[in-house]
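lol ok so funny story. i was supposed to be doing the assay writeup but got distracted and ended up predicting the structure for this chain instead. priorities right. anyway since i did it might as well share w the group, maybe its usefull for someone
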Amino acid sequence: MFVGRSLIAACGLLAAFSSFAAAPAAAVGNTVVVLNSRDATITLLDQTTYKEINTFPVGKEPHHLMPTPDNKSLIVAAATGNALLFLDPKSGQLQSQVKDIVDPYQIGFSPNQKWFIANGLRLDRIDIYGYDGKNLKLAKRLPLPSMPSHMAFTADSALAFITLQGSDELAAVDLATQKVKWTMPIGKQPAGVYMTPDNKYLLVGVMGSDYVAVVDWRTQKIVKKIKTGDGAHNFRPQGDNRHVFVSNRVAGSINVLDLNTLESVGSIAVPGGPDCMEVTADGKTMWVTQRWLKRVSVVDLATRTVIKTIAVGRSPHGIYFNNRASEL
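and the output, tada:
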């Protein structure tokens, strides 16, 4: 059982997927999954040819996505659709869906895979589920001050960190007790949060300003502010255990941060509200959703320039492909 029921195929959605039979197929593992949040659709792109494979309807406001721990499925969180969709991570085709997951704006598994969290941005709460490797069981529905957004975890899975966009705070949640351990002011409209590979610092994108806050989470202090661009928003590691990218929505740029020095070591111009990023396994290219332009850009990381733009749906947000770089 999964949240009290078996995984149930979405009959209405499956009808929409009938066009897959006629749609061109991408090479195995070359399918790019793009969530068009305002259109309530998913666009599939061929990573090699940059051409559209298919676009199909899903639950309202699909924002974020992530693979299951066994990499057999890709979970798409439909926030106002109150559902999780499970796709084949290589082809993007629908496997199943689970309803009654309320307002899953952002989702995440703890490193030990014992816990699954769904952040309810519009409902000011997080739902904490126990996970046994197959099934989810609701453990706690935990109210938080205002607009829980992104999340990160300690390496030992003891704490989950949640950015609170509405109250300008960062919260630490004890996963064993499912209680808030502490909150701290972090800056205006905090969004993305990333734990450094050494488990020493949290990096928080301060979307209402132009910097990334470096937080010593053990002492609950901001130890540094890394200047980026206006609207510092989300993170994606390069996969080399050394660099991480941060998108700046307002500035229309992406900063390259060095995790050893905690300094910005470069900037990439990507206009139109750059948001989520995905990096190819070879580390050569990065794909970026452009929320305000209905486009995805492909960036050559050697030259740090956009080499291709691809039209998608309205307000593209999450992006994923199977042949991806490590998230370290």
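The chain has one helix and 28 strands. The longest strand covers residues 136-143.
back to the writeup now i swear
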